[in-house]
């Protein structure tokens, strides 16, 4: 199973047209991933290529459209290239990167490697990237900062009509993997089998991690000595800022029926009948705040340039997003004076148990 996009370090190549971006992309990946031509504007949309980088792990290289593109679609290509900055952990800068674009990279404290054509040997470039990425602060793990206790977890994972057939969803998989990697133990149940699972244990689990949509039911069933959180909240801690998102959820609960809310989902799957972001949370919010609230939606990497008209942005757990994307959206909300939160926080707040969750 390939490493998820959200767990890969992303490295983008920037430069003016015909500065060798596609040539470098092909050199680094050892494949003809990007088309190489003397004609300017060969690369239109960003080209992504996954690979394993020895000493670093799974990475994604991104070849972008070049600057100084005077073609008809040049402006649109440049806008898409600018958005790539919000996705990356490291930037390779070729000829022609300066001005406002360079300022944005430095403002985000993105490590940079400057190269010019003809390029050094592949191994030399990769070694320099390894040094840059090793110096970059490692993203927090899902369980970092938790008072683990003896390290036994009960994972409550509903398997309703919104659950994918034949597999578990990514937040559940990633959480289980981290539990295993850290040498802890886990018991897995659905809401219906939670009581039986607890009876089989010799002592109460240290932590119960649940799907957000059954927060209230799980809270009612949990042993008093067990701490409780959700998969979505674990991701808020690891990729976002839990304090900002807690504040955002509380602010949302104080709004009225004139509220304007943006639901922002990382996945681009076709929503199902009882989709949590498209159906369940909007229904919950209309019941809580009033039927006349305005709810808009964004999906995937697409995100409105101007969010100042919204009161709150509600993100999903963002398991498909790398940490820089989430951090960028939090910063964008802060600059616009807009509150931001996520699914798990909103459900807990709407059900009146936000203050009872262990963070």
TrEMBL record:
It comes from the Bacteria. Residues 10-94 form the G domain. Residues 152-240 form the Hydrogen maturase F dimerization domain. This is Hydrogenase maturation GTPase HydF. GO terms for cellular component: cytoplasm. It comes from Aedoeadaptatus coxii. Residues 244-356 form the Hydrogen maturase F tetramerization domain. Gene3D superfamilies: 3.40.50.11410, 3.40.50.11420, P-loop containing nucleotide triphosphate hydrolases. It holds the Pfam family HydF_dimer. GO terms for molecular function: GTP binding. InterPro entries: GTP-bd (IPR006073), HydF_dimer (IPR041606), HydF_tetramer (IPR040644), P-loop_NTPase (IPR027417), Small_GTP-bd (IPR005225). GO terms for biological process: tRNA methylation; tRNA wobble uridine modification. The lineage of its organism: Bacteria, Bacillati, Bacillota, Tissierellia, Tissierellales. Keywords: GTP-binding, Nucleotide-binding.
């Amino acid at each position: 199973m390939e490493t998820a996009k959200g767990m890969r370090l992303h490295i983008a190549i920037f430069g003016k047209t015909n500065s060798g971006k596609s040539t470098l992309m092909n050199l680094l990946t050892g494949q003809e991933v990007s088309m190489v031509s003397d004609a300017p504007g060969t690369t239109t949309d960003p080209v992504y290529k996954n690979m394993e980088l020895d000493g670093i792990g799974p990475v994604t290289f991104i070849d972008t459209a070049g600057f100084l593109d005077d073609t008809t679609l040049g402006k649109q290509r440049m806008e898409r290239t600018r958005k790539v900055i919000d996705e990356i952990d490291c930037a390779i800068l070729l000829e022609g990167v300066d001005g406002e674009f360079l300022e944005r990279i430095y403002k985000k404290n993105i490590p940079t490697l400057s190269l010019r054509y003809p390029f050094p040997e592949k191994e030399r470039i990769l070694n320099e990237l390894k040094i840059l990425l090793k110096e970059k602060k490692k993203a927090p793990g899902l369980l970092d900062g938790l008072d683990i206790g003896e390290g036994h977890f009960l994972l409550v994972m509903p398997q309703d009509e919104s659950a994918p057939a034949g597999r578990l969803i990514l937040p559940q998989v990633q959480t289980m993997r981290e539990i295993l990697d850290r040498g802890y133990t886990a018991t897995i149940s659905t809401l219906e089998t939670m009581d039986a699972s607890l009876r089989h244990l010799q002592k109460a689990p240290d932590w119960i991690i649940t799907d957000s949509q059954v927060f209230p039911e799980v809270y009612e069933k949990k042993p008093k000595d067990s701490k409780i959180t959700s998969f979505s909240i674990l991701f808020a801690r690891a990729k976002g800022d839990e304090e900002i998102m807690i504040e955002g959820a509380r602010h949302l609960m104080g709004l009225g029926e004139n509220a304007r809310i943006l639901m922002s989902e990382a996945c681009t799957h076709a929503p199902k009948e009882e989709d949590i972001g498209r159906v369940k949370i909007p229904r919950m919010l209309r019941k809580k705040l009033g039927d006349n609230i305005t709810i808009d939606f964004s999906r995937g990497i697409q995100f409105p340039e101007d969010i100042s008209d919204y009161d709150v942005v509600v993100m999903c757990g963002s398991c498909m997003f790398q940490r820089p994307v989430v951090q960028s959206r939090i910063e964008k909300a802060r600059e616009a004076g807009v509150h931001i939160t996520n699914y798990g926080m909103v459900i807990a707040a709407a059900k009146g148990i936000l203050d009872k969750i262990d963070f």
